[in-house]
Design a protein that fits this description.
480 residues; alpha/beta; Rossmann fold; 6-stranded parallel β-sheet; 18 strands; 19% strand
Length: 480
Amino acid sequence: MRVLFVSAEVAPFAKVGGLADVAGSLPKALHELGVDIRVMMPKYMTVTKVARELRRVVHTCAVPMPGWTSGCALDEAVLPGSEVPIYFVEHNGYFWREEVYGPPGGAYPDNLERLSFLCRAALAVLGPLGWSPDLFHLNDWHTAPLAILARQRGLRQATVFTAHNLGAGYQGVFAAEQAWVLGIDASLPWVTKFFSGGEINLARAGLACADMISVVSPTYARELRDPAVGAGVDDLIRERGEDVWGILNGLDYDFWNPATDRFLDPADGYATFSAGDLSGKAACKAALQVEMGLPREPDVPLVGMVTRLDAQKGLDLVSAALPELSGLQMVVLGTGAREYEEFFAGQAQQRPEVAVALKFDERLAHRIYAGADIFLMPSRFEPCGLGQMIALRYGTIPVVRATGGLADTVHEDGPQPNGFVFTDYTPQALRGALGRAVAAYHRKDEWAKLVANAMTCDFSWGASARRYLELYQEAIARKG
């Protein structure tokens, strides 16, 4: 089976969000299952800073655009730690920029044209490359134009569209006046599913045009049928029915490994650890308290958050609940909405048991996962979530709201409890779950069992990749 995996961002070459992590990991796991999978992304400025060796495999290729012909070149490397080829589409006018989608808090005005070009280039280079896939795996609205082209042209290849986040701000909505760069035949009846009311919605285009669809957790797939979560795509989710699969993202267990984590530097007081020897975790807690200016209190539970500071992540619940919480310490890492940055900065100034770092810091993120006792994710909605999986890997017990992938991975009841869960989206429910976690922390035998359960969970990419392989097979079979 031959698969072209197209994404606007792929770690470590360019990363804005979790999409990049998936695009940098899932193809490796599929390759291990025998899939001839190749990845394609734009050649941004960041690529040359990361890629050790780039090989020019297509020197020039004409790319037909609506009303004119442009061109591109294609460079090749491999995903780090694998033999998976990754192709970089070179067009300096579109992609040789400092940012992937635009400056912080903004977007490039020609994003629709840039991404339309990427999708058309993905088709155009196949001839010069001398390789053709059986299936295109498209990721988020950025690559939905390829699903439109595949359906409009009647291509033989099957298409799978994965929606990593279908929140209202993540659907790729553009004014109708810009849609001409997609070259859509507006007379086709199915076009109205995503092109109407004076705008075009590329997430809806992917959902309407792809042969099969996946979202990033089984619970999220069910929740999207509800207008309260579906954010304007719920009708298509219901219409596509069994074409929509929920498949959990996996975690890169080589990178996120407390036994080998390079960010747990002994020079700073940190230490690696494993399920069989947790002494290093205690050292990490002490070092984190020192680094963040918290009182060094080994018997006080330390709550960590590594998060984007916005309403989706449940920060309104935290801001309502935190002033009334006691008997714990908290460390927060993240950036986002000014109101939440100001709230946490104020809490850190007023309360010695609260520490805040308003920045992106990968090293500190690893140290929080390793040094905290409890990890808080009270999300309003969470398509999949990786934070809770990382926390479990590091023996840090999650407290989560039962939504999306959080509900699929964290369980308070049953034979193997690994965290604490609340359902109602209220500060009271959050305080209740966190209170249960703090109480359990002080019952050492119970806590040790929770940590053991957490660290034996397996959310590596293997099981998820097998589900994606089944999805590919289904899409190809339906295509005939």
